[in-house]
Structures are given as C-alpha cells and as structure tokens.
TrEMBL record:
Name of the molecule in the record: ABC transporter ATP-binding protein
Organism: Ciceribacter naphthalenivorans
GO MF assignments: ATP binding; ATP hydrolysis activity; branched-chain amino acid transmembrane transporter activity
ABC transporter domain boundaries: 2-231
InterPro entries per UniProt: AAA+_ATPase, ABC_transporter-like_ATP-bd, BCAA_Transport_ATP-bd_LivF, P-loop_NTPase
PANTHER family in the cross-refs: HIGH-AFFINITY BRANCHED-CHAIN AMINO ACID TRANSPORT ATP-BINDING PROTEIN LIVF (PTHR43820:SF4)
Keyword ATP-binding belongs to the record: yes
High-level lineage: Bacteria, Pseudomonadati, Pseudomonadota, Alphaproteobacteria, Hyphomicrobiales
Similarity annotation: Belongs to the ABC transporter superfamily.
GO BP term (any one): L-amino acid transport
Pfam families, per database record: ABC_tran
Amino acid sequence: MLEVKDLDVYHGNSQTLKGMSLSLAKGEVLCLLGRNGAGKTTTLKAIMGLMPARAGSVRLEGEELTKLSPHEVPKRGIGYVPQGRRLFSELTVRENLEIGLMTRKSPRSVLEEALALFPRLEERMGQVSGTLSGGEQQMLATARALCIDPSVILLDEPTEGLMPSMIATIREVVMTLRDRGKAILLVEQRVEAVLSVADRVCFVENGRAQAVMPVQALKDDPSLLGRYVGVG
Ligand SMILES: Nc1ncnc2c1ncn2[C@@H]1O[C@H](COP(=O)(O)OP(=O)(O)OP(=O)(O)O)[C@@H](O)[C@H]1O
C-alpha cells in the first residue's frame, strides 16, 4: 500500500535520510525504532511531503507522492499525528475536528466514527483544545487525523509523556484501526508498547532502515534491541 524507496532527505547540507526504504501493508502496524536522531521523524515528514526528497520515491497504491505539495498528501488519504500533536490550541475540539473534515471534504459519518473511538472527546467538544490534558490532546490529534478517513496513519511517539491509562487507550485505538484495515506507521520509543502493538519492526540507524523483522523475532531475541538501539 505505502512504499518508501531509497529516500534521501537533507537538513541544509546535512543528509538526514540516506536511502531510507520501507513498505507498509493494509492492516499492519510497522514500528520504527532507533536512537535519537536516527531519522524516524524525518521519515514521517518526508512521507507527508513536509521535508523534500532529493532522491527516492514514496508511493501510495502506486501513486508517486514526492512530487505533490504538502497539502495534497493528506488528501490522498494519509493521516499524520505529529510529535507534540500540533493542535490549533486556541480553537475548540469541534473546530480542530472540522478542519480535519474539511481537508478531504469527508462526510459527517467519518467524524462520528472517530468520536466513537474517543467518547471522552465527545464530552469536550466545546472546550478550547489548549486546555485539554496531554492525553486528551493526543486523542484529539488522532481523531483529527482520522477525520480525513485515511487508509494510512502515521503516528509519531503518540504515548510520549502520557499516563498509563491514556497509553492503554491509545494502544486500543491503534489495534482497532489496524483491525479495520488501516496501515499504521508508528514511531515509538517504549519497547513494551512496540512489543504489544507492532506486527513488524524497522530499525532505523543513520538515516536508513538497517533491519526489518516481525515483532516475534524481537520477542524471541531481545538482544536485538541492544544491537540496534542500545537498550535491552
Ligand atoms: N530542523 C532541523 N534542522 C537541522 N537538522 C535537523 C532538524 N530536524 C532534525 N534534524 C537532524 O536530523 C537528524 C534526524 O532527526 P529526526 O528527528 O528524524 O530523528 P529521530 O530518529 O526522529 O529522533 P528523535 O527520537 O530524537 O526525534 C538528526 O541528526 C537531527 O539533528
């Protein structure tokens, strides 16, 4: 469904992605793991067109995305939940969600489906989003991404700084979306979260995918974590 191939991305003169490749299938969760600065966030930004690719390709169902302008990419059905959530903090929950709906002119039913996953948001529709708790903001950022009715969802460290009950909620939602056939690309630092939600793991090192394996391989041999990310 999503195919990233030999992607080169630069920050100024410094090359951040050096031939990054990965593939993501419908109904699977692929987790990017790697040390700080390895290029995980940059990979998500490059898929969204927020960082230009100097070489390589990003294809969704065969369509090349690297030539599109950044606002076109969500319209193709890729939902992005960035690190730090990037909500419109002065706007209400409802307004943030409406912006998601407008992006792809999704029907109301898409919003209702998103809210059904997060009943807590439904109780706070009129609240200014900057006053929500961290966990609620994460729910809102995720629900907003779902408002474009995406086939692919990119989540950048969605559980960072959240309390355990919120982490459990986000995990449940990821599993539900996967079961509904969404393709999910997840950046996650917490190893136990990776082990509990991922189908496959991609170790990112120095701007490229060093190894890709089923999560079971990691469960069978936790020393792989030490080799690739310096933990475990
Ligand atoms: N705005 C920027 N300007 C210059 N260099 C940047 C910028 N953003 C990221 N980089 C560099 O790109 C490299 C990859 O960063 P990236 O954020 O993709 O890493 P990451 O694997 O997501 O790590 P982290 O877990 O720290 O977010 C790093 O060396 C970083 O210093």
